[in-house]
Write a structure and sequence with these properties.
The chain is of the alpha+beta class. Helices cover 36% and strands 21% of the residues. The longest helix has 41 residues.
Length: 422
Amino acid sequence: MTKKQRKLEGLEKKSQERREWQTKKLEEVAHINLGQSPKSEYYNEEGDGPHFIQGSKNFGDKYPELERFCSEPKREADEGDVLISVRAPVGPVNIAPEKLCIGRGVTALKLNESSNEYLFYFLKYFEDKWSQFADGTTFNSITKSDLQNLELPYPPTDERNKIAFILRKLDEKIENNNQINGILEELVQTLFKSRFVDYEPYEQFKDVEIGEIPENFELLQIGDVCSTRGGGTPSTDNDEYWNGDNLWLTPKEVTSLDSKIVFDTERKVSDEGLNNSSTAIMPEKSVLLTSRATVGEVVVNREPMGTNQGFICIQPNSRVKPYYLACLVENKRPEIENRASGSTYDEISQTSFNGIQVAVPPKEDIEEFENKVEEIYEDIYTRELENRRLEELRDTLLPKLMSGEIRVDDFKLDELKLDNEV
């Protein structure tokens, strides 16, 4: 048999295998439990009853962040059920981490056989396709009939479990990286607080306007240790200003980040867009502070980038270092928030920000701190880059696994492993 014949035989075999997959309507393979909102008088924060979730507002990457409880639930989801948002925005999915009270913005789904994770990942794959089913004038919505008639590929149980296993392992590695990064960032904040807030290494102090500070510290304003500028938005009516090579950050992106490091943005600006707006590219390791609406979020950019007008863009001068400055600004968040004001939304001006008084240690103390935390942030950055690769791999595999283009039935489940390095 020639090489070409073997290839054709392999393609024919894969095609036959795909044809062996069944297509099922969701109502045939799963229990559909529509949420129903209880009276608001039964909502509480004291732990009376199960946790309550009304819609996708509290959805996380895979599990929701639970806050309120309900003492008199009308509909409940079991632990492990797939939760799908059926009101705007329609389609996002999570998994119930425990027994939950579910409101009318959520429907709980449970496969009749095998793990629900296959269903979770199929609905993740299908999430951006719900718009063709959405109806309603006030809210886009998914009806029970939409869910009942949704068709999904339904390979044999063993193959469903293997597909879910592969995707779950990728998600677990991403979550593990996020947890490590969270611990490392807490460590940085602990180091900063012990040295430059609680002044633990210092013995001699002096009284100044903001209180008692170490003898060798200087009382300065933030504007004395950095330069600031605002951001801007090129005209969205001119397509030539967009889809270029220049990164352009918005506050919404910052609030969804998993760490204080930013290295990419959803939208890119062209050189022409930069030249025809107040947007300016900040150099690597600038400190970017959200200054309106959500005030006080702080990130450090690892790639040159511009921002919209919702930022104060801060560049350290020779007196301080980038990560020290980021920690200093973050530590001043309560005062930054108190200084923010506005009739439409809260905002802090550059003038007000630059006037914040700070106790600044000697340069050698800053450099010692910077040397320690720079290594930590390099570790964080490395994991963020790895997570990006893992997410791209997962998002590439997901449609191919769900369509049967990539088959996993030749693998033994107990032999499938993902190494720490990808």
